[in-house]
Amino acid sequence: MSQTIATPPTVRLDSDVIGKPINRTDGPAKVSGAAKYAAEFGVTGPLWYGYIVSSPVAKGKITKIHADEVLAIPGVQQVFSHENVPSFAWFDRAYKDDVAPGGSPFRPLHEPEIMFNQQPVALVVAETFELARYAASVLRIEYDVEKHNTDLDSVIGEAFDAPKGKTGFVPPPKPKGDMNKAFAEAPHKVAGEYIHRAQHHNPMEMFATTVDWLGDGKKMKIYDKTQGAPNVQQYIAKIFGLSTNEARVISKFTGGGFGSGLRPQYQVFLAVMAALELEHSVRVVMTRTQMFSFGHRPHTLQKLRIASDDQGHIQALEHKALAETSQFENATETVVNWTGILYNSPNTNFDYQLSKIDVYTPLDMRAPGAATGNFASESAIDEMSYKAGKDPLDFRLLNYTYSDPTENKPFTSKRLDDCYHEGAARFGWDQRNPEPRSMRDEKGMLVGWGVAAGCWDASMQKAAAKAVLSADGHLTVNSATNDQGAGTYVIMTQMAAQTLGLPMKQVTFNLGDTNMPAAPVQGGSWTANSVGAAVKDACQEVGKKLLKLAQKMDDSPLAGADFEDVQFVDGHIRANEDITRSVAIEDILAASGEEKIEADGKAGPNPINQLKYSMHSHNAVFVEVKVDEDLGTIHVTRVVNAVAAGRIMNPKTARSQVLGGTVWGLSMAMMEETYLNNELGRYMNHNYAEYHIPVNADIHKIDVIFVEEEDDIASPIGVKGVGEIGMLGVAAAIANAVYHATGKRVRELPLTSDKLL
Amino acid sequence: MNSFTLTQATAADEAVRDLTSHDGAAYLGGGTNLVDLMKYNLERPTHLTSLGLLPLTDITSLPDGGLRLGALATNADTAWHPEVEKRYPLLSQTILAGATPQLRNVATNGGNLNQRTRCYYFYDLATPCNKREPGTGCSALTGPNRVCGVLGTSESCIATQPSDMCVALAALEAVVRVQGPDGERTIQFDDYHRLPGDHPEKDNTLKPGELVVSIDLPEEGYADHFTYLKLRDRSSYAFALVSVAVGLKMSGNTIEKARFALGGVAHKPWRDQEAEKMLEGQTASPDLFRQVAAKVFAEAKGYGEGSLHNSFKIELGKRAIVRALKQATEMSQVVNPNVFLNSNP
């Protein structure tokens, strides 16, 4: 018997856009080349070019700079070095940016001392780029070379507890119970040491600054490659004693950042300094080699010990990490804490230390700290599951925690369990033979299936936005945030459109200009949440003004309604109770006679909720590898990445973020490593040919699942952010799959073929 | 990059005259390596003799049954040429295992032979390197040297010749035809590149002013039994850790003739004629292949342990030879195993 089911009438709401897979509003500009990056902006009047000269030694002192020889070349305008750079701000605090770690920030061209290899030692400014490059190549600089030490292994004995001082750094959780006793007495246990060396961000776009000297006092437009224009502006203004009016920083598009653009890089200092000294427009672009001259994911050594009882319950959990930092700053990451957040154990010990070597200060790189700690802990948990005789997924579920054991707080939401279940179902985990080396494909290749979990902060920062609704009905929203490719442009447009019930095409979102309301650097997965809430707030304020104007209209159907009583849908304000009581926004604007309606919005963390709750995003990653054991080659043939990160504003851009994160995790697992030559104190594979990241042929099927969470506590807009979470779990799941395929546990990244021979 | 003058030559003899009449001159083919080196300030020619207009782009059959590859034919045009694909599939696949389509579309055959090493230290002016600046020392001997060689090295240099194409040309026993101030001559491929010895600054045996005009392939192309196995750190756009080009003539399961060469392990494409002879007249078997592999690497020297250092290449190289010979005899897998073709949509 057939049954007819009435199809509900399709209601198309152009303004109902949050949660929809909408294309990037900035996409056409990017693919057509219309989108301008820092080194592409034109200036008023002629432009001069600065070329950076880098130190060939890691430690020592400059004794002589033969600038006169280079200044004699026609077209060379100036050679800047410590010999002629005027003194600017005196105190360290002027050089501290919003996300600087503790210590004394590097001051370019201030001192003759060399503290790290490739330290910028001079800037040659000339009338063309080619001339500046040539002149830089013949600039003779003499050094007194001193003995350096870049070998982390040699300074393990000098490790010290990582000090506080950097925004966002959470010291290791306090120990619980008696770790050593519990470990000694437990029937099943694992202990292992894990290593990855330095990794460099390598965004496609080089760090670059174009300073447009406006010829009006010290006024400049500073086009900079950064993840936060306001952070750069504060840095520049403090150092050079400029007003925010004089130092306007603009960053409309960022060709990848991954953390490298969190701190102002030295080219912006050099370009602004040269422009001020020469009173001329100047552009400075780093070379690819120089992209290896500053921050990086630090070389980190880790030790884990885990023990369980016969049922597979974790009884002892210890995670220790030792990371490199520079001689002048204490770069800190949250490395070990995540292990304690994911798994409960009555006995724990956590430790995180630093040792100083002669390199530049490490810098947050995608899922900083967590990516490092997660690889080690999820590898060790996997190993523990085998020791306890449990399926790796069952073991994780058995030790699942519904509150944060490190802070004894409930989570605002945590659907990691559903990530496990939905991911496992999509992957076909139930078909897995638990025995290592038991699965092969039709060609005889060893097949391995691995799983790992990940955890990241759902964090919120202070942010502001301004919304302007013009008489023609177009809404423009501005915030000085950033879009390093994440999709900020489109999701903020969605947020504004949805809040005021306007179609996307009637809304423009602008970012990346310090003349706009301030926003934090784009990092930590907090942009969607923080800026999104500020945009919503600004639009709601405009909405309130609109409602008041609507109520002033003759015979207003909305008379007497409070803001909470109405909704903004399809260009109308409607009463919730009776949607036929409706006024078109264009009619309100026309009746009001106003040229525009504008409002400021802001958002920030809720301190009470932060005290009461633990706020995190989670994911579960399932991986299939195929291994050619004779040759040691590994292919990651399938990945399922199931993510619980609150509300997903745009499943298309969010999926792209998780795809990118998955590829990043694969890259970390399989390829990325900066080769440090300790004798020379220098990174050696400083180009795209030798610092390997995946090509298309390395990437196969990646399936992204979003397990949505309703969470109004972590965020007023229910968003947790997806910038980092997608890469977590991936490296460990690959290593775990390799173990399942081969029976070989590799604890040192990357998983190059030589490690399986 | 320094300033330079440039001449567009239209014939080989004119190019030779132009180059030899300028101090500090260099030939410019596709420029995919030279221009990079100039940007890095590693090469500083004051004059370039551009070869772009020379009529050396043809690929033509030779009366002896061989095939002539014009020195200025691009790598892409060579790899996709019907005669090359049909008669010398080993060469075609080897070319396609190198670089990227963009590079292969511009890079020339002559230039491929003359590309410089990719040793990290050669590419970095801040470091000692005997190949770049004779007498300064070799940083690779003790530093990270994953990209460096284990066969035929010297205490002066352990750099490798980075070409894929040349590995096949060595196995195919190509002949390089050159033109110089004293006229034309031919160089057997084995003699074209040299070992570093005490003069690592010299990559090859070209005399001053000599210009590659063609690469001549003998008639035998091993189209029935061949393989190019390239092992590298990612599936494309990476230089070989170890690569093996094999050409066999088989009769049943018996190897009648064997030629093979290795890339990524030496200052030149590495051939071992004694090892080749060990295969000839023998029945193909894993044991035989292992003996051959052991012979090839008997004199190998690794420079340090761990993944940053290259000793692992000795074991990897042996396994690569065994696998490549197996693939060539069985013609079981003639695609690069690094490029994994999965069945997922």
TrEMBL record, chain A:
Domain Aldehyde oxidase/xanthine dehydrogenase a/b hammerhead intervals:
32-147
Q: Which residues form a coiled coil?
A: none
Record Gene3D superfamilies: Aldehyde oxidase/xanthine dehydrogenase, a/b hammerhead (3.90.1170.50), Aldehyde oxidase/xanthine dehydrogenase, molybdopterin binding domain (3.30.365.10)
Pfam families, alphabetically? Ald_Xan_dh_C (PF01315), MoCoBD_1 (PF02738), MoCoBD_2 (PF20256)
Q: Which GO terms describe its molecular function?
A: iron ion binding; oxidoreductase activity
InterPro entries reported for this sequence: Ald_Oxase/Xan_DH_a/b, Ald_Oxase/Xan_DH_a/b_sf, Ald_Oxase/xanthine_DH-like, AldOxase/xan_DH_MoCoBD1, AldOxase/xan_DH_MoCoBD2, AldOxase/xan_DH_Mopterin-bd_sf
Supply the name of the protein.
Xanthine dehydrogenase family protein molybdopterin-binding subunit
SUPFAM superfamilies the UniProt entry points to: CO dehydrogenase molybdoprotein N-domain-like, Molybdenum cofactor-binding domain
- Origin species, per record, is Hymenobacter setariae
Automatic annotation (TrEMBL), chain B:
Q: Keyword annotations for this protein?
A: FAD, Flavoprotein
The UniProt entry, under SUPFAM superfamilies, shows: CO dehydrogenase flavoprotein C-terminal domain-like, FAD-binding/transporter-associated domain-like
User: Sorted alphabetically, which InterPro entries does this protein's record hold?
Assistant: CO_DH_flav_C (IPR005107), CO_DH_flav_C_dom_sf (IPR036683), Diverse_Substr_Oxidored (IPR051312), FAD-bd_PCMH (IPR016166), FAD-bd_PCMH-like_sf (IPR036318), FAD-bd_PCMH_sub1 (IPR016167), FAD-bd_PCMH_sub2 (IPR016169), Mopterin_DH_FAD-bd (IPR002346)
Can you give the residue ranges of the FAD-binding PCMH-type domain? 1-222
Q: Name one GO molecular function term.
A: FAD binding
| Listed transmembrane segments | none
- The superkingdom of the source organism is Bacteria
What name has this protein been given in UniProt? Answer: Xanthine dehydrogenase family protein subunit M
**What's the source species for this entry?**
Hymenobacter setariae
